């Protein structure tokens, strides 16, 4: 039987199937990246719901695996060389899963690096900026009388959507006909921006029809539909 006792997180969230990849997450834009990728790939895994509303990601057990205190995180009992590996940061997890299985990433080296650059684009730009729009438009930041921060992030969000619009012109997916971790990394964020964050009108999303078509195409994938609800709330 696979032994995960070296990982304190496995004590707080015990594994029923320790031989499977363990996912510690919630259904946030960053969290669903991993569950969507796992559903697309078909790799057996066991999801564990981390209640960020109860600050469970800041418990010692979670921090022992992810010192950044953010979801998602994983333990793969069958890591490199057959040894268990724990990973945090969603972009690194996506790349790991793609490399492990040879799926969701082109085999050609040049196209592989091109895919990775778009994952980094999400990690360094879309994720942080869209998150700030959510804070200043939907959450506590909306109470701030000075609207300049909101305007700043609104304008930058619009610019970033424009980058996607330009990239997707004439393409089915970010990497042409290849659906990759680049798409997986962004679908949840764009969905949240116009849905959960209620910022569709704010950022003028309807001015970007190619992005809208890409989003609809992505959200219609069965694996994406499943991944958006995994892990189920505890």
UniProtKB/TrEMBL annotation:
Gene3D superfamilies (alphabetical): 1.20.1050.10, Glutaredoxin
Species: Mesorhizobium montanum
Annotated InterPro entries: Glutathione-S-Trfase_C-like, Glutathione-S-Trfase_C_sf, Glutathione_S-Trfase, Glutathione_S-Trfase_N, GST_C, Thioredoxin-like_sf
Protein name: Glutathione S-transferase N-terminal domain-containing protein
Pfam family, one: GST_C
Domain GST C-terminal: 108-234
Domain of life where this protein originates: Bacteria
PROSITE patterns, per the entry: GST_CTER, GST_NTER
Domain GST N-terminal, chain residue ranges per copy: 18-105
Family membership: Belongs to the GST superfamily.
Upper taxonomic lineage: Bacteria, Pseudomonadati, Pseudomonadota, Alphaproteobacteria, Hyphomicrobiales
